[in-house]
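Lay summary. Proteins are chains of building blocks that fold into shapes, and those shapes determine what they do. In this project we predict the shape from the chain. Here is one chain we studied, written as its sequence of building blocks.
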Amino acid sequence: MNKAHPAVARSLELWHEMVASRDLSKLASIVHPEATFRSPMAFKPYAPAPALILALNTVVKVLEDFSYHRQFASADGLDVVLEFSAVVQGKQLKGIDMVRFDEEGRIVDFEVMVRPFNALQALGAEMGARLGELLPKFKG
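And here is the predicted shape, written in a compact code that computers can read:
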């Protein structure tokens, strides 16, 4: 299994600390200004960085019993896949975060995939209720 690039490993360490504490106040320090967020509910990505930060700060409040299970890295260590599980509105879900970093360890692309469909629908409804007025202005 490949290892994350050293700068990416440092950013991932901070990411895991933030997720564990449910406090993403330091997230901006590891996000590239032109970063994109790819929601499991939308085809077009949201950008730039404030959209990603808004989405992740919201989802960390929506998902319950969140935990990461496995991590995979590309050969160059700049692409990382994080497998997770959580609960939303009483529905168990599994998913992956596919995260692309730059050489400085900043997130440049964050894509989320979630299953099963009924949990994705519940997640989409909850995120939509919280971000319905805010996130669309960032659509690419």
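What the prediction tells us: The domain at 6-132 is CATH 3.10.450.50 (Nuclear Transport Factor 2; Chain: A,).
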